[in-house]
Amino acid sequence: MAEHHEGEIDKVSGRTTTGHEWDGIQELNTPLPRWWILTFYACIIWSIGYWIVYPSWPLVQGYLPGLLHSSSRADVAVELANLDAVRGGKMKALATTPLADIEKDPALLAMARAKGKVVFGDNCAPCHGSGAAGAKGFPNLNDDDWLWGGSLEQIMQTIQYGARSGNDEGHQGQMLAFGQSGTLTKEQIVTVANYVRSLSGLSTRPGVDLAAGKTIFEENCVACHGDNAKGNQELGAPNLTDKIWLYGSDEATIIETVTNGRAGVMPAWTGRLDLATIKAMAVYVHSLGGGK
Amino acid sequence: MNKPLLPTDLQPDDGIQLYEAQKKIYPQSVSGTFRRIKWYLMAFCLGVYYLLPFVRWNRGLGAPDQAVLIDLPNSRFYFFFIELWPQEIYYFTGLLIVAAVTLFLMNSLGGRVWCGYLCPQTVWTDLFFTVERMIEGDRRERMKKAAEGFTLQRGAELVLKHSIWLLIAWWTGGAWVLYFSDAPTLMKELVTFQAPMIAYIWIGILTCTTYLLAGFMREQVCVYMCPWPRIQAALTDEWALNVTYKYDRGETRTSLKKAAQLRARGETVGDCVDCNQCVAVCPTGIDIRDGAQLDCIQCGLCIDACDSVMKKVGRETRLIGYDNDINIHRRMEGKPEIFKPVRSRTLVYSALILGIGAIMTYALLTRSLLDVNVLHDRNPLAVRLSDGSIRNGYTMRFLNKRGFDRVVAVDVEGPPNAVVHIIGTDSITPDRPMIILGRDATTELRVLVTSNTEADLPKSMPVTFHVTDIGLGEVTSTKDVFVTPETR
Q1: Quick one: B177 and B299 in the same domain?
Q2: Which residues of B fall within a CB distance of 8 Å from A113?
Q3: ipTM of the complex model
Q4: Chief subcellular site (chain A) (predicted)?
């Protein structure tokens, strides 16, 4: 049982006890070291100062700001502004340098490629893939086949205003739906599809009259794809003689294309991204290897 | 004598303390062979440390001309004719291994030679002792002054001593930062307060540590802080030479006069006259006659002290000397002393040092001064162009370790009709791009390899890039793969 005897002296150690005793076991009076106690009190005093100077109490709306009005959010904003200031020079140089000259300046090219890669990842990768390899219906930007032109200016133009994007300056033009409109019959479509396959050296279905296909092609397709089927970048009409097919080169896909038409959309990025950023992106895309 | 203690006999401070409060040690000055060796080594070590940053080494225009320079901003390490890049850090690993094995070899031959003669703690403490002796006098004088009260002259002495200590400590920190920047320039900047803050901070840190460790902690560092005595104890074998009190000659200890009396009575008396000089001179305050111990840094000063006494009393010197227990026992049995510096462990250590040293030297002499790394594009792995040819993209990184700009040409070998193109370069020769690599710099470029072939290529085939220095004719090659895309 606990008992209390004030100020007793322990026989064994010769020290005073706290006077507390439990079942005959006494507690020695061993206070914390003075330096420890003093440090503890100093911490309490320090915390009061801290409490006054820095934000502390939560209130119903917001918090007590403290004398210094310190805010980590404001600090981050300042640091971001500083970063902008640090990069300001190069971003400005990017905005003012003519597009064609950027690739001649190794430092600016490196900057544009790095910046472009990041912006591409944020904005373009959902459709074109993180490495710009594209997908069915979304062009591969690494190759040398361009619907709307692969020069720096043309790439930039496409990024800025898009294609069928609703922007007045964007690229217009579409593949007509020859089957839906009834312009061509199913048989005619099969015939012309096989003729188109033959243009790029692909095999054709046995028994298909390629000469008839050629006639159908000349009557319906040359307006956009050209006499030699080399395409027309003004209209976004693809070259049908090369090895690259946006939607696929098999007969069924070509039949589907001729029947239903195609009208993929590239959004316009002007207004969403600033000029320097779009320039960086154009340089990046151009440097992927397919740029003309 | 070993009667158990009753609880009532126990006093709170009876227990063995884990940490013994520092006993002030007043080592006496001494002269002799080992003291002389210590002076020379101290002068050498301090000389190297303080003066090395001022040694110049011509590396050509634009390159730093400091012989030893750790250039952190540019990630370069310069050591006379050697210039190391960050990726060559393994040379330091090799150096550390050689240093460690050298320490083992020294230990298996002569005990803690490192501790006694070469360790910075020993060297600077010795320097601080010297200053202390010059100002406050030798052992007896210092003990007397410490026991006496405070006087004005005593105060002046202390101020002078600590000022000189601080000056040495400050200059130790100052010399340290000189290894990280051009020494004369940094000196000027330091004096005019133009130097970067980090330099002042490091000088401050090293001033404090030198002042505290060499002025106050002294032997405490060796006894309580340093791991080497513990490791060393595990590395020592019975053949290693250590500073040893030859008890076969020394026991029993007694004064000259008493020894004569005892000898007359035919009793055995040792050479030790129990003058305690070996204890008085010991910088860690131990008695070597108690045998080998952790606190002993084996500086050999007790050997000098004992030798001088032995000479005075006309007895044979080296009652304390570098010896081992085996020889003590052999002498006691009347056998001749033997020393075995060539043992399996010393042979292994020497072989390791020579082997690693040879590998490092070979690697250093044959290392390429033009490194080329190539990284294949991961997405897409390969691209088919409109004419059916296949192109692979790579990121190539060139490291020009030479001190001048170089023009290199890139050729590619492997895929049929392979053509190489580098983004951002205009080729003078078509299909063989040439690029300028800045001196002592890395250049990262995007490289495209196109293969135009009618034949079906395998899914993946090796491709070799040859980078040829146009001026020197040096060729560096690197390999990767060339991938064929799946047809869509």
Answers
A1: no
A2: 446
A3: 0.70
A4: membrane
